[in-house]
Amino acid sequence: MDKPEKDEIDTMRMIVEELRQKGKIYKKLDEVQPKQLGIRNKIKIYHATDIHGYFTALFMISQKSRVLMKDVRKMEEIYGKLMVFSDHNFKYKMIKIEAPLCSKAQKAFKETGWKIL
Fold first, then answer.
1. What mean pLDDT is predicted for residues 21-49?
2. How much is the pTM?
3. Which CATH number is 6-116's, of 3.40.1010, 1.10.1660, 3.40.1350, 1.10.8?
């Protein structure tokens, strides 16, 4: 298994700290490479297990352009691939967006069960 790079460790530490402040504590947090799911999107995907044994899918998007409705559909498609790859469902779906977010897309994310961080 490859040793994680310093910036990957810093990113994971930042994620864990931010989630801890929101009351979410995870005992396991693994990054899933987009290549493993057969996608080319520049997105960070994490598979987390909380202290109660529930699974959480955590997506991180960082882009300059606005997140639109088509991106919501794409995230749902990626989420479906993650479920097949992991061979189980997730109790929670969280997404951290570091980009402008269209109001229709925000509403669509909430309607499809995503929690926006």
1. 87
2. 0.83
3. 3.40.1350
